[in-house]
Amino acid sequence: MPETPTSPARADAAEQTPRRTFLDSILGFGFMSSAMAMLYPVTRYLVPPPGGEPATLSVVAARLANVPPNTGFVFNFGNRPALLVRTPEGELRAFNATCTHLDCTVQYRPETSQVWCACHDGLFDLGGGVVSGPPPRALERLTVQVRGESGQEEVVVSRD
């Protein structure tokens, strides 16, 4: 039986199949790469990296002579802000300076002797308890100690 030559249309179809598969693969890879490039930042935003607690357990916040009565100031406690307050009576108190509502930094208001969150007008008393506003719970209290010689006393703030 004589061999029949393959038609040119059949030869082109056989040749195009691998070419078409290759182009489909490239196109699919492009779509997958684009999808991953869009999903990665969204995933990083929705799943934040673990923050952990600050490695610092105690910090020298200030010299006692630099903290007059009825004042307060924010200082760094590890990687978070903390607030040192000296009450009108001269007692020292320290708090985590992050508001329990939306993590804004709080500050001391000497005219009312209260801790105030400027973001949504939240007020805390000098014990850290909520007085008014949207904060759902009290501020975290930190331990305050005075160390050193007279005239060189340092205020040391630590976590319990």
Please sum up the structure shown.
The chain has one helix and ten strands. It is α+β, with helices and mostly antiparallel strands and about 160 residues long.
Structural summary, described in words:
- It is a single chain.
- The model has no long low-confidence stretch (mean pLDDT 84).
- With 160 residues, the protein is of the alpha+beta class.
- It has 1 helix and 10 strands; from the N terminus they run H-E-E-E-E-E-E-E-E-E-E.
- It has a 6-stranded antiparallel beta sheet with strand order 1-10-9-4-3-2, with no helix packed on it. Strands 5-6-7-8 form a 4-stranded antiparallel beta sheet, with no helix packed on it.
- The protein has 2 domains: 9-49; 58-158, 3-layer Sandwich (Rieske Iron-sulfur Protein), CATH 2.102.10.
- It has one helix at residues 8-46; strands at 58-63, 71-77, 80-86, 92-96, 107-109, 114-117, 122-124, 130-132, 141-147, 154-158.
